[in-house]
Amino acid sequence: MAVLPRVEINLEKIRHNAKTLKQLFGRKGISITGVVKGVTADLNIAGALVEAGITSLADSKIANIEKMRKAGIKADLILLRSPGISEVEKTVRYADISMNTELDTIRALSAEAVRQQKTHKIILMVEMGDLREGILLKDAPAMIREIFTCPGIELAGIGTNFACFGGVLPTEQKMQTFSRFVQAMQELFSLKLPYVSGGNSANYNWAVKTKDAEAVNNVRLGESILLGRETSGGHIIPSLYQDAFCFVAEVIESKIKPSVPYGTIGKNAFGEQVTFIDRGNRRRTIISAGRHDVLVSGLTPVRPFHIIGSSSDHIILDTKDAVLVPGDEVRFYMNYGAMLRAMTSPYVYKTYVHGAATTEPYKQQFLLSRGTRQNRPPETEKNPAN
């Protein structure tokens, strides 16, 4: 009997997406680092990326880097964010490379690298306007000079980030400014950097349109590989699969009920004031998953159902004319937030499809970008957490 709720993962579709993107970016002289933080560095998925020819993998959690290292994943392992001082020992032990912005942290890594008799590589992250991590460009020369004084540390790259915190896009002008800055640093310090990491899945449109990537030779791709979308607008990337991940849950109740709660109305269990439109009696179907398990706003039912709302352990659907019974399965497409929550949840089982992808890359024009909630009916639009 199938275990529910679960995420079904098609490894061949993930391999296809990775290979396609590797070729696409490769034509511009750009390598790919596969970002696996959204799937908790799942070893089957990490292995599929390596099989697709990706030679570096990145995660923001040192525990996931450790997991991949101990499993013998054959790739350079990159800690995707600056390590905390408390994580320095494990960072040097398990990560080949870490991204850094603070000199105190780099010095701590240096001391630990000397203690472990290792060389630890770093990518210095610089600020291009998104205002997440990064040093200001004007501060880079002094920082690089200090890095050169740290034993056991090798400056392996310079990187930047776009469209994560502030939503700043990697325009052609921004990318040219970044490239010219990196070129100036390489000339000033006689450097040849293996990693000039120019961004993430938001860089897809730039990569397709640009005639010259200049200094950029690497991007960090997670969502575009896993879900076949670029992240600046959440648009589908041609020739990629968007359904490599499918969330499946079981029907536990299906009854005709009023469409509006009755009685004195207050806030729900999450402190939300929910409003409803009276549609008369409707078939309401409840499935065995909720906010404990998945980001409900990031789900889109495969069948033409509406998500009415959710609690910790229930998702309530309007199934229209479809009559479902307890034990039936309901399937959903997921956006990145839903995938991340489901892959992180210990209550959601993970199953794998190892065979060849038997369908063409998914063509249906639904939008599953971050923040999109078009799967919800009008009466719950005022409930931002549904």
**Taking Cα atoms only, what radius of gyration do you get, to the nearest Å?**
23 Å
Overall shape: it is: elongated
* Whole-number tally of structural domains: 2
CATH class designation of the largest domain: Alpha Beta
Average residue-wise pLDDT: 91
CATH fold description of the largest domain: TIM Barrel
| Strand-pairing-aware structural class | alpha/beta
Residue ranges: pLDDT <50 for 5 or more in a row?
A: 362-386
Please count the helical segments: 10
Task: Return the string of H and E elements.
Answer: EHEHEHEHEHEHEHEHEHEEEEEEHE
The CATH level-2 architecture of the largest domain is identified as: Alpha-Beta Barrel
Give a concise summary.
The chain has 10 helices and 16 strands.
What would your notes on this structure say?
- This protein is α/β, with parallel strands linked by helices.
- It folds into 2 domains: 8-227, Alpha-Beta Barrel (TIM Barrel), CATH 3.20.20.10; 245-380, Lyase, Ornithine Decarboxylase, Chain A, domain 1 (Beta Barrel), CATH 2.40.37.
- Helix content is 26%, strand content 22%.
- The protein has 10 helices and 16 strands.
- The protein has helices at 11-26, 43-51, 62-71, 88-94, 103-116, 140-147, 172-189, 204-209, 223-227, 336-344, and strands at 6-10, 31-35, 56-59, 76-79, 97-100, 120-125, 153-159, 195-197, 218-221, 245-258, 281-287, 299-301, 306-310, 315-318, 329-334, 349-353.
- Helix 6 (140-147) links the parallel strand 6 and strand 7 (153-159).
- Helix 1 packs across helix 2 (43-51), helix 3 (62-71) packs parallel to helix 4 (88-94) and helix 4 (88-94) crosses helix 5 (103-116).
- The longest helix is centred in the middle third of the chain and has 18 residues, at 172-189.
- It is elongated.
